[in-house]
Design a protein that fits this description.
heterotetramer; A: alpha+beta; about 25% helix; about 30% strand; B: alpha+beta; Aldehyde Oxidoreductase, domain 3; four-stranded mixed β-sheet; four-stranded antiparallel β-sheet
């Protein structure tokens, strides 16, 4: 399936990318995170187990076991700090 | 209900006037303005930039206003959150809640702010003398939001 | 600190601007406006007249602002209460509290309103189609104020 | 001793007086209330045991056992309803 993946704030800066389109063979948000971690470097570091980040699927925050529908808009970002 | 994400400043007085004008059923209007401070985590802040997730932001704010309306009997709600670069003293966020009685207006206004702090996709980056830094989420904000979880 | 009892209308936006102008240490401003409603205890209210006890009123309001300042770390407080004849939709009372953090601003603002309702010598007389009536004190206001009594 | 006694709101209207100066031989707020009740009519009715009214001495609300100093400003009024 195809996914549109967005990064925000510190992750966007560290990854050096705001948005990408991926071909994805996995099923869940955890599978996507594992795929990105496998890139190594800042990807492995920022998405390591125990690091605080959030995943939203089609603009709703989800847990890592959430299934990803085809053509989903997936966003990965640090805990929010607005207000 | 009115929900806006904008770079421009907002006008608290004008928002409250617009909400109450011509109405005689509102007994209470609670409001909150959050401002940029010149000090955070012990070091001086010269400016900050607010980033957000266009699309999800509006959706998240609408969802938390809906949740507030389901918990309390509210007559109107306005939420305005600024994005972009702001200086110390600049207003960042406005929440205005109108109700018949003050208890509901206060509770809903504080609930919306607590949830906004932990649920809406905004991120702050501060400029200090030592350089730029992303603001880390506060555990006190998680605790404030957790107060509202129904047991 | 600013405490006023007056017949004229107040301007929420101007009061909040005056409080925050030129300051960069305020992170949170919670405010409350109470308005005259056209309905109370099930019958229509055409107008109301607010009477007070000049001298004691100012003293009682100052005492409850002092009490709020002793309970929370506040940067500024404004309380304005109108007296005289008011129509439905007219604002009656304004409380604005500035603090570094929102939790303190919200708590102090609600505390001041709850105490004002039970401790400050104001009395409301309503004009209805059936004639004039003095508003009776509400047990819900006593309960709201009692929440703040330290155990 | 001399007392200045003020009435507000419903009590002011029912008594038909906003303010009076009294010669007072008693000691406490309860003694003053008893003196006023003894006038009968609306005074006995509004200040009867069980009726809700408040007494302030020199602009502080007090309980009925409070002593009244000479030249005190005493106010008697219904429970407050501002805001």
């Amino acid at each position: 399936m195809k996914l549109r993946v967005l990064y925000f704030a510190r992750l966007r800066e560290h990854f050096g990318v705001a948005e990408e389109t991926l071909d994805f063979a996995g099923a869940t948000a955890a599978d996507l995170v594992a795929l990105l971690q496998a890139r190594g470097g800042v990807w492995a570091e920022e998405l390591a187990a125990g690091r605080a980040f959030r995943v939203a699927v089609n603009q709703d925050i989800v847990t890592l076991d959430a299934a990803l529908p085809d053509h989903a808009e997936v966003a990965i970002f640090p805990p929010v700090t607005g207000g | 209900m009115k929900i806006l994400v904008q770079t421009e400043a907002f006008d608290l007085g004008a928002e409250v006037d617009a909400m109450s004008r011509g109405r005689t059923d509102i007994g209470a209007i609670a409001s909150f303005v959050g401002l940029a401070r010149d000090l955070n985590e012990g070091s001086g802040v010269q400016a900050m930039t607010l980033e957000h997730y266009p699309g999800m932001t509006e959706k998240a704010l609408a969802a938390l206003v809906d949740e507030a309306c389901s918990r309390w009997t509210l007559l109107d709600v306005t939420v305005i959150h600024r994005v972009g670069r702001l200086l110390p003293g600049d207003p960042i966020v406005l929440v205005v809640v109108a109700s018949q009685h003050r208890g509901e207006a206060f509770a809903a206004c504080e609930f919306i702010m607590d949830y906004l702090k932990t649920q809406a996709p905004f991120w702050k980056k501060e400029e200090t003398a030592e350089g730029e830094r992303w603001v880390e989420a506060r555990s006190s904000d998680d605790a404030a939001a957790a107060r509202w979880v129904k047991s």
